[in-house]
Amino acid sequence: MQLTRAGFLVLLWLFVLAALRVVRSDLYAASGLRASGLPGFRRSEKSARGSKAPRQLVVTHGALTGTRISLDGRPILIGRADDSTLVLDDDFASTRHARLSMRGTDWYVEDLGSTNGTYLDRAKVTAPLRVPLGTPIRIGKTVIELRS
Amino acid sequence: MGSPVPAGEGSPGASVATSTSPGLRPPTRRGTELVMLSFAAGLVTLALILVELNQERSLSLRVLYLGLAYLGLFACAHLAVRRWAPYADAAILPCVALLNGLGLVVIHRIDLAMEGTVFLDGSTWDPVAFKQVIWTAIGLVLFAATLKFLSDHRTLARFGYTFGLIGLVALMLPGVLPGFIAPEINGAKIWLRLGPLSLQPGEFAKILLMVFFAAFLVSKRDLFTTAGRRFLGMDLPRARDLGPLFAAWGVTVAVMVLQKDLGSSLLFFGIVLVLLYVATERAAWVVLGLGLFSGGAIVAWKLFAHVQQRVANWQDPIGRYERIGGGYQISQSLFGLATGGIGGAGLGAGRPEMIPEANTDFITAVIGEELGFVGFAALLLIYMIFALRGLRSAIAVRDSFGKLLGGGLAFAVCFQVFIVVGGVTKLIPMTGITAPFLSYGGSSLLANYILVALLLRISAAARAPQRAPKPKPQQPAIADQHTVMVERPK
């Protein structure tokens, strides 16, 4: 009886561990801790990628802070429309506010005729502008930037 | 995502981001879910076998069939997820399956213990395990229906005010209806009796009101942080923006307090506070809310005898052991937990019949007695994983309404567990409330299955790849077109 009792508890804990294993990969992302911040990871990343190509878009200010969208070459639509890649519900954003698109290896931001404009690090975006890594793009009250 | 990340792919964080990316099809992970569900069903079957053995009942193949039936039930739920929300989170459903299954086993175990008991009023114990199985089945049907008919959680936001109104009406209904349809049970008038069924509309109202608050806060959030006047270093919104929120909040909590449903009022107060905090990111709201709560709690303590009683029972349960309405229940629960100790008495080997209301409010005390601290901690961790996955989905989903609703739903389960376990272990005064998925009670189970379906819907929206943009008409490459390439003048 003692054995079955302990056995059941062990199995119960195994279930907990299995469930944690299922969710393991997300734990880092949820805490905002990026494993690439660790020295070991960074080195391997650099040597593997060579250059610093933007790989994700991160919202740094505004209601959606913390949202990450990874970049795979397809254009990213930003605005209040439901089918935008990043859906803003900000009174200062337009339905179709801005678009980020990739040309060659660089990402460009262009304003889609928004009411309040799109700003790339203080400069108003009037024509497609190249977006360097880590440069804030302000749309209404939301600020996004590209990260490698 | 569970597989180890190849070195060239970069960090785990990046691999997660990839799963929400537009281009690559992320793994749906339904296979993992099925394996975990089988694990959960195996554990539940084992628990049932242990109970039968410890109660010295003859084991038959029937136990195995019950286990398989349980697996079948959740396999259907799994198929529903596979069909209607293929990208839903893989850990949520197995956690729920295990909690619900353990709840069923413990309820069955209490039935065995109470068999043949005759109460003071001459009634005998009515076995409830089978009823709970039926409720589970109905709950899973509702779960599948919610997934099928709600293909996008954002549609809920459009019906925010309607849901809020229905929720308030449902909440007040038992209070205003006459006694034959809304009987007073254990001093709380929160039930509706429809033929053989008793329902607690408050459980459903909780979800409806959560949808309302989330939708309301999303549409008015900007006004909460910008307009209005400054007071004590805090930007207060204008009264007309705040009005509906505080009206609904106040009415809800007041109704619950008047119905003597203290646990639900505490739960609801906490949920709205957290929604406000998540929506505005201002700690000041939490401070304000806690202040309001302390004020309200003191007023309630001064005004209501039953609140005073609960607090006194909390402060000294053993000193009030023999009084009517005294600390008997909490003392018995503490004795049970103490008997369980670290390793527990073993499933089926404890004495749950010593605790009143063992299969509803005090079910966690029974589990603490029979599985001990080790098993109880595992149980709490399973709740934690459930809430963690819910919050994670809320972070990952791309629209604010989903974020707020998902965060609210996950927090609601978490907070409910805190209230009931805190009460049972004498951390806070005991307020009657069910342990989600564990306790006997149809309404609570049905409402919680709807809640799980909503969370899965939100997590599916968070993980699913973006819909492909409308296909553009295929154009031949510019060099192949029948035009003349003109060099740009230099």
From TrEMBL, chain A:
<dbReference type="InterPro" id="IPR008984">
    <property type="entry name" value="SMAD_FHA_dom_sf"/>
</dbReference>
<dbReference type="Pfam" id="PF00498">
    <property type="entry name" value="FHA"/>
</dbReference>
<protein>
    <submittedName>
        <fullName>PSer/pThr/pTyr-binding forkhead associated (FHA) protein</fullName>
    </submittedName>
</protein>
<keyword id="KW-0597">Phosphoprotein</keyword>
<dbReference type="InterPro" id="IPR050923">
    <property type="entry name" value="Cell_Proc_Reg/RNA_Proc"/>
</dbReference>
<dbReference type="InterPro" id="IPR000253">
    <property type="entry name" value="FHA_dom"/>
</dbReference>
<feature type="domain" description="FHA">
    <location>
        <begin position="76"/>
        <end position="125"/>
    </location>
</feature>
From TrEMBL, chain B:
<feature type="transmembrane region" description="Helical">
    <location>
        <begin position="34"/>
        <end position="51"/>
    </location>
</feature>
<keyword id="KW-0133">Cell shape</keyword>
<keyword id="KW-0812">Transmembrane</keyword>
<dbReference type="Pfam" id="PF01098">
    <property type="entry name" value="FTSW_RODA_SPOVE"/>
</dbReference>
<feature type="transmembrane region" description="Helical">
    <location>
        <begin position="371"/>
        <end position="392"/>
    </location>
</feature>
<dbReference type="InterPro" id="IPR001182">
    <property type="entry name" value="FtsW/RodA"/>
</dbReference>
<keyword id="KW-1133">Transmembrane helix</keyword>
<keyword id="KW-0472">Membrane</keyword>
<feature type="transmembrane region" description="Helical">
    <location>
        <begin position="201"/>
        <end position="218"/>
    </location>
</feature>
<feature type="transmembrane region" description="Helical">
    <location>
        <begin position="404"/>
        <end position="425"/>
    </location>
</feature>
<feature type="transmembrane region" description="Helical">
    <location>
        <begin position="159"/>
        <end position="181"/>
    </location>
</feature>
<protein>
    <submittedName>
        <fullName>FtsW/RodA/SpoVE family cell cycle protein</fullName>
    </submittedName>
</protein>
<feature type="transmembrane region" description="Helical">
    <location>
        <begin position="285"/>
        <end position="304"/>
    </location>
</feature>
<feature type="transmembrane region" description="Helical">
    <location>
        <begin position="63"/>
        <end position="81"/>
    </location>
</feature>
<feature type="transmembrane region" description="Helical">
    <location>
        <begin position="88"/>
        <end position="108"/>
    </location>
</feature>
<feature type="transmembrane region" description="Helical">
    <location>
        <begin position="262"/>
        <end position="278"/>
    </location>
</feature>
<feature type="transmembrane region" description="Helical">
    <location>
        <begin position="437"/>
        <end position="458"/>
    </location>
</feature>
<feature type="region of interest" description="Disordered">
    <location>
        <begin position="466"/>
        <end position="490"/>
    </location>
</feature>
<feature type="transmembrane region" description="Helical">
    <location>
        <begin position="128"/>
        <end position="147"/>
    </location>
</feature>
<feature type="region of interest" description="Disordered">
    <location>
        <begin position="1"/>
        <end position="28"/>
    </location>
</feature>
